[in-house]
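Troubleshooting: if your tokenizer reports a length mismatch, compare your output against this known-good record of 108 residues.
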Amino acid sequence: MNLAQCTNNAFILVYDVTKAETLESVAGWCDQIRQSINELGSLILVGNKCDLKEERQVSFAAAAKVAEDLGIAHHIEVSARDDVNVEQAFVTILAQCLQQAQQHSDTK
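Known-good structure output:
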């Protein structure tokens, strides 16, 4: 596979677990992304501020359902403040990009 010839768009859709309206915006963001990209596109749904347990408005299960309904293969919660799962979110989107690039290369 020649990665120099592969193109892939990666999108990390971030919502705030302490603000339900941010998860409600994800569907619109997803539609905008899918309308604007022509070929490959990798998406991951990331819930930020998972450390703020008392302020949580969005459950993990509710966000996972949104991800499933929108065809987003990966959902993860992170805490940027406490550095929880931040690296894992980037590793996940990179792995998804590489997998799609490989599949795209195999079909040529």
